[in-house]
């Protein structure tokens, strides 16, 4: 009798074990393509570029002529005025486009959320530039910005500015011109995210504030703004990181010019890596970009963690 | 809504915001109008919003059927976007299935690891990926480019979140009926995940269609160019012809705007779902 029970038990646990093992194998098989893809196309290249950043490897010379040069590339960066110009432009770009874009987007979102008819139509209109190809959009703005015959300068000259800026070909205004396009294109996205945040604020809070006699502006400052804080934080981090990575508009419109006036970090990486083929130096600058992104993200994580504790 | 319910202040703000939104969309309206004009009318001031002389068809023919292989660029874009989208949906949904429904020891660590890689900016790994693609002999090929576009932790994450909400009962019931894991995945889980697959698919399609940086790095021959590189090439050929440039831009943008207007709920959902939960 006992042996039969033991037998049943053992086959049962055996079956359980087989089942468990099968599910584990199947699970890893399902995972494998994505995991291998992500590892070989994200983590391996990151480590590879760390290695390259300590070499003077030039694609044209091949691996034989590669030398380990320690921190040589990073020392070179210190004296590279183009690199610093790019970094400065990145900081300028970020410090203007992020607050300006987010403030306009938040105001638009609040107006669209409660204060207008045909809400859906506004959502679509503002969102259109975001889904358009950046290159196509840039081609349009290039025509609008044309220094002598473009509509923008014709308008400015029409209302009395005799010498309007030359925009994209003006070393003082090139980066500003690109910032305008970047804000314009991202606005719809930011507005949509704010709108999603607004729908999560309960109408009751506003109701009781109105009963207490709070004005519209008071409601905005003491309910909407604080309640939207998580959304604002999310958008701030994504737009700050996005602004570090700005490249398409600059490559297509100015190639970093005139005279490197509108160069940025990623454009420098592109220039060194894919025009001059200095893979070592380009990799070193890639790591600067990576560390910057990590730094911004950690600051945000700290803010978030504090917010949760209190 | 009856006329009585119209509130004056709300109406005023609507009108004001309409004015703003028209101003906002003016560059695109200008593009449309310029694409339909004779070249000599494009830069006239004041702007002729409605062309005095329509030249739409001639511009269209010049862009699509003459010197520049625009039709080929279009086809390349379409091909790349479709293949990358299908590949991403396949790999991401498979991984999401394992992450959400299968007991594979160590998958939690793997998930955390892969999520943390999302922080690595694409541009930071561009140089080594370029070298790897050269080693594989896939430089200047669509295969190499698709390889770069086929894996996305973002979509894997979105699908995992969705699939965790699919009740396990469905899957247990199917298993009792003798269905294998592959059938559970293909015939039960995927059909139930249609909403997230649609959303992810549309977003991925739009991103690939608009992608400029990856083709710029990984492609070299103009016969392989997708639209964004095609427009760049076009610009070098016709730098002084604004009306043709605008026709090319319109041609690149219009399909996306149509897709967006038809599927706006999915598009907006796909953009926001990562945002609000993130």
How would you portray this structure in words?
- The complex is a heterodimer of chains A (310) and B (278).
- Chain A has one domain: Orthogonal Bundle (MetI-like fold).
- By secondary structure, chain A is an all-alpha fold.
- Helix content of chain A is 76%, strand content 0%.
- Chain B is mostly helical.
- Chain B contains 15 helices and no strands.
- The two termini of chain B are 37 Å apart.
- Chains A and B meet through helix 1, helix 3, helix 4, helix 5 and helix 6 of A and helix 1, helix 4, helix 5, helix 6 and helix 11 of B.
Low-pLDDT residue spans of chain B: none
In CATH terms, the superfamily of the largest domain in chain B is MetI-like
Number of helices of chain B: 15
Write down the CATH class of the largest domain in chain B: Mainly Alpha
What is the helix content of chain A?
A: over 70%
How many structural units, i.e. domains of chain A? Answer: 1
The stretches of 5 or more residues of chain A where confidence is low (pLDDT under 50) are none
Separation of the first and last Cα atoms of chain A:
64 Å
Q: Tell me, what's the shape of chain B?
A: globular
The amount of beta strand of chain A, in percent, is under 5%
- The proportion of residues in beta strands of chain B is under 5%
Structural class of chain A: mainly alpha
CATH fold group of the largest domain in chain B: MetI-like fold
Q: Could you give the count of β-strands of chain B?
A: 0
Gross morphology of chain A is flat
Structural class of chain B: mainly alpha
Largest beta-sheet characterization of chain B: none
Distance between the termini of chain B: 37 Å
> What fold name goes in the CATH topology slot of chain A?
MetI-like fold
Keywords:
heterodimer, A: 310 residues, mainly alpha, MetI-like fold, 13 helices, 0% strand, B: 278 residues, 15 helices, globular
């Amino acid at each position: 009798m006992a042996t039969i029970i033991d037998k049943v038990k053992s086959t049962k646990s055996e079956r359980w074990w087989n089942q468990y093992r099968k599910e584990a194998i199947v699970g890893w098989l399902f995972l494998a393509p994505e995991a291998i893809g992500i590892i070989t196309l994200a983590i391996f290249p990151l480590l590879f570029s760390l290695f390259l950043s300590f070499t003077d490897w030039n694609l044209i010379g091949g691996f034989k002529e590669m030398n380990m040069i320690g921190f040589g590339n990073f020392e070179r960066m210190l004296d590279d005025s183009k690199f610093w110009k790019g970094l400065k432009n990145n900081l300028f770009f970020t410090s203007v486009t992020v607050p300006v874009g987010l403030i306009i987007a938040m105001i638009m979102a609040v107006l669209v959320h409660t204060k207008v008819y045909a809400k859906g139509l506004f959502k679509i209109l503002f969102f259109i530039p975001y889904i358009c190809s950046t290159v196509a959009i840039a081609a349009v703005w290039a025509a609008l910005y044309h220094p002598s015959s473009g509509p923008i300068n014709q308008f400015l000259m029409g209302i009395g500015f005799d010498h309007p800026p030359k925009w994209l070909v003006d070393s003082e205004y090139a980066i500003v011109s690109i910032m305008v396009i970047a804000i314009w294109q991202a606005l719809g996205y930011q507005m949509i995210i704010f709108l999603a945040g607004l729908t999560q604020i309960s109408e009751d809070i506003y109701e009781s504030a109105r009963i207490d006699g709070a004005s519209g502006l008071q409601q905005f400052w003491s309910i909407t703004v604080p309640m939207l804080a998580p959304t604002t934080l999310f958008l701030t981090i994504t737009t700050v990181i996005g602004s570090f990575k700005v490249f398409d508009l600059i490559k297509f419109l100015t190639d970093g010019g005139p005279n490197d006036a509108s160069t940025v970090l990623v454009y420098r990486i592109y220039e060194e890596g894919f025009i001059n083929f200095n893979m070592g130096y380009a990799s070193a600058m890639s790591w600067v970009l990576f560390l910057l992104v990590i730094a911004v993200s950690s600051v945000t994580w700290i803010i978030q963690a504090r917010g949760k504790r209190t | 809504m009856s006329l009585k319910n119209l509130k004056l202040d709300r109406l005023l703000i609507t009108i004001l915001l309409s004015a703003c939104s028209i101003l906002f969309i003016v560059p695109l309206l200008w593009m449309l109008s310029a694409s339909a004009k004779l070249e000599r009318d494009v830069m006239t001031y004041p702007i002729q919003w409605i062309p005095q002389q329509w030249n739409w068809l001639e511009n269209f023919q010049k862009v699509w059927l003459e010197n520049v292989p625009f039709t080929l660029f279009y086809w390349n874009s379409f091909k790349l976007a479709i293949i990358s989208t299908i590949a991403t949906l396949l790999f991401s949904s498979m991984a999401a299935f394992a992450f959400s429904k299968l007991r594979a020891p160590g998958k939690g660590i793997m998930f955390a690891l892969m999520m943390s890689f999302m922080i690595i900016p694409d541009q930071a790994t561009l140089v080594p990926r370029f070298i790897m693609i050269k080693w594989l002999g896939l430089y200047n090929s669509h295969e190499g480019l698709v390889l770069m576009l086929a894996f996305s932790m973002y979509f894997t994450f979105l699908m995992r979140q969705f699939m965790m909400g699919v009740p396990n009962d469905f899957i247990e019931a199917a298993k009792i009926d003798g269905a294998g894991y592959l059938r559970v995945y293909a015939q039960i889980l995927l059909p139930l995940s249609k909403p997230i697959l649609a959303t992810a698919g549309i977003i991925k399609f739009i991103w690939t269609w608009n992608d400029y940086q990856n083709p710029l790095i990984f492609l070299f021959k103009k016969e392989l160019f997708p639209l964004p590189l095609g427009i760049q090439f076009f610009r070098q050929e016709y730098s002084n012809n604004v009306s043709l440039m605008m026709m090319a831009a319109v041609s690149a943008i219009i399909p996306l705007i149509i897709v967006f207007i038809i599927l706006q709920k999915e598009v907006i959902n796909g953009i926001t779902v990562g945002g609000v939960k993130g």
